[in-house]
Design brief:
The longest helix has 29 residues. The protein is an all-alpha fold and 108 residues long.
């Protein structure tokens, strides 16, 4: 799964660079959405969060290595995007916990 995630991230980031419009915020949005989707597809364990975050960041770093002139924008946008994606998952998880009936919580 991580290989597919890395390839998807790479392609999305390259597309953003080709368009060349507001690169940092575009990459941030891409990283946020990819991170959120990947984490939401399974259990939000610490290991999964770390593996997904590392995979997305690795893809961005490889691209930044090739695109030295835009490296700072690429990495900064990716880091903030990953952070936002994880925060979005935590909000979703908290909402589920809040709206779960007490009987179900006790049973679990």
């Amino acid at each position: 799964m991580l290989g597919i995630l890395k390839e998807t991230t790479t392609q999305a980031l390259l597309t953003a660079l080709e368009k060349g419009e507001d690169i940092e915020s575009t990459i941030e949005e891409i990283a946020k959405n990819i991170t959120y989707q990947a984490i939401s597809e399974g259990e939000p364990t610490q290991k999964r969060l770390t593996d997904i975050s590392r995979t997305v960041l690795d893809a961005a770093i490889e691209i930044a290595d090739e695109e030295q002139a835009r490296a700072k924008e690429i990495v900064k946008g990716t880091v903030y995007g990953i952070k936002e994606g994880i925060a979005k998952v935590i909000e979703k998880f908290n909402y589920i916990l809040i709206t779960t009936p007490l009987e179900v919580k006790e049973a679990v």
